[in-house]
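User: Hi! I'm working on a homework problem where we have to compare a predicted structure to a textbook description. Could you give me the structure for the chain below?
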Amino acid sequence: MSCLDDATLIHKFILGEGELLSNPHLRVESAFDMVQLIAKKGGVVAVIKQNCQIASVLVNLSSPYLRLIHSVLLKYSFVPLGKLENKVFLKYEYHEVPAGYQINYTSAKTLWSKWYTQTYRSRKQAIELDILVLIRSAWYPIRNISYTPGEFFIETLVGESHLHNEDRVVWLNRIQVERNQETLQPSSPTELPTSKELTQKKVSAQLELALAIRPLALQAFNKCVELQLTKEVKLGFYIVKLSDYKLAYQPKTESLFIADVSRTVVAQYRGQQVENATNLELQDIKSWQEILTKLENLGSN
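Assistant: Happy to help. Predicted structure tokens:
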């Protein structure tokens, strides 16, 4: 049997397939509720804590394998959170990355520079989806970044984050691809927007709302499962009534429907793809935040 190279062994370790594997440089060992990747020279490289609600990996910052394991973790959507365990380990957590995006882990100053160059200077009024930040375990577009000497305030649809210049932050940027599309010429500053342009802005705003509401609705559904509030209407398809909304979800296909009593279908998704958001309103995101808060309070009682 051929010997595994370091990269292959690390891949298997991250995927949970590396128990008891080894090569001349690395070995995998189980201990209590964790699995460790250990270098024969240098000690512990990384630790996977088992039975966690969110899959996580702790990586030794002083390990010579740091760069290699970092690249492997990013490939499998494990993102660095900047939370140091005893100032020795950097914590990574699994957070699904939407198709067409790549992970970045930089200083807040670098994020601001990228956002300012790409979004603010373009003078587009609609919130752009080219850059997303991780807030409350979900990816959200940036509404604004304000700056005071040494500090940044990143505003999203679900709140504001406060960071210092060199604080590390994880964010996504859309991968640029060539498109065979006609280039639109910028309008003159004195030109009024056409009805088509106004429609495009409205659609962009509704898409942005839909992307922000989806993780809130899924968290609410999972909480309802814990509280046994869901009803299976047919095999693998569940519904639950929450305030003025009805939520229907099929975990196998990740099909999600959100309906309102007065507006029928509010939003419809297949996986992370938004299929319908024509009836969404700004109030909906506030309503879902309130629903989730009530469910969390109900679960703690």
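For your comparison, note the following. The first strand starts at residue 26 and ends at 31. The two ends are 56 Å apart (CA to CA). Good luck with the assignment!
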